[in-house]
Automatic annotation (TrEMBL):
Pfam families: DDAH_eukar. It comes from Pseudomonas matsuisoli. SUPFAM superfamilies: Pentein (SSF55909). Gene3D superfamilies: L-arginine/glycine Amidinotransferase, Chain A. This is Amidinotransferase.
Length: 308
């Protein structure tokens, strides 16, 4: 059994505001100088990488290329997911320039170094305007085989049904809105599911029956629910990811913005379940509209044997 997490990250070449995704991502802001944004994003990325490595996490880094310009390459978790039985799943993405990320080397790295026995490719759905953006759209409880999904322009019901049938997951779908009434664009900005703890902004789910279904699903899977407020959702507190460090210890990765907006009792509860790993992503969050979880694509594939 794997005791240390392996993740893939994409080091940015020309990180910038992405107009292809800004229409339904309320977290994005185009108010910083482009040169500053690109340089600062690299600094934030490198510090994040160093922090993960210092905690014993295995990190595969793919260096982005300047052309074609893919401003959101830094968020690789939307394009694919990997699974312990050798399955690679490719997902349809709404942003046209995001689809160009598939040619930037991440998929080739997986095929080169890991055992990919089969691939399920949902990307042809893009031609019909149907999207399912990987582990942005889907927050997966791998042990309980439950996929939590907030419906949005980027998360289509029909594809949720297809995912459930092909992957043998039960899908819990719901509708959610932020404090301004704007639909939440990705499920992973409002909730995270770890081995024993589930931070989730239940307040974003207006329908009380849907809210109870989400809570009960988590509690029935023996997760302690950590309720987040709408203000904390805005602070990226929902965009956390639990991974395992070099000693098999649980690490809950989050941004400085997320950690700072938590109450003392929430921090204490987190520390009972995992070691917080807090990184500074101020520029990436403000311009890209994604945070710590979005930057990590988990690799659950078996690694290829090293030939002598």
């Amino acid at each position: 059994m794997q005791t240390t997490s392996t993740v893939l990250m994409v080091r940015p070449a020309r990180f910038s505001f992405n107009p292809d995704t800004a229409g339904n991502n309320a977290f994005q802001h185009d108010d910083l100088p482009a040169d500053h944004v690109s340089e600062q994003a690299v600094r934030e990325f490198d510090a994040y990488f160093d922090a993960l490595r210092a905690h014993g996490v295995t990190v595969e880094v793919v260096q982005d290329r300047a052309q074609p310009h893919t401003p959101d390459s830094i968020f690789p978790n939307n394009g694919f997911s990997t699974h312990p039985d050798g399955l690679l799943v490719l997902y349809p993405m709404q942003g046209e320039n995001r689809r160009l990320e598939r040619g930037k080397g991440a998929i080739e790295r997986l095929a080169r170094d890991y055992e990919v026995s089969r691939t399920w490719d949902f990307t042809p759905e893009e031609a019909d305007g149907r999207y399912l953006e990987g582990t942005g759209s889907l927050v997966l409880d791998h042990e309980a085989r439950v996929a939590y999904a907030c419906r949005s322009v980027r998360t289509h019901d029909a594809l949720l049904d297809t995912f459930a049938a092909q992957m043998d997951f039960r899908v819990v779908a719901f509708d959610a809105h932020d404090a301004r009434g704007v639909p939440v664009y990705h499920t992973n900005v409002m909730m995270s599911v770890g081995r024993t703890l589930a931070p989730v902004c239940l307040d974003a789910i207006g329908d009380l029956w849907q809210r109870s279904v989400v809570r009960e699903g988590l509690e029935n899977a023996d997760k302690q629910v950590l309720p987040l407020t709408l203000a904390q959702l805005d602070g990226f507190a929902g965009n956390m990811l639990e991974i395992q460090g070099g000693r098999g210890q649980p690490l809950l990765v989050m941004s400085r913005s997320a950690w700072h907006c938590l109450d003392t009792w929430q921090r204490t509860l987190i520390e009972r379940h995992a070691e917080p790993l807090v990184v500074t992503l101020d520029t990436i969050e403000r311009v890209g509209g994604g945070s710590a979880r979005c930057m990590l694509a988990e690799i659950r594939l078996p690694r290829k044997a090293v030939r002598a």
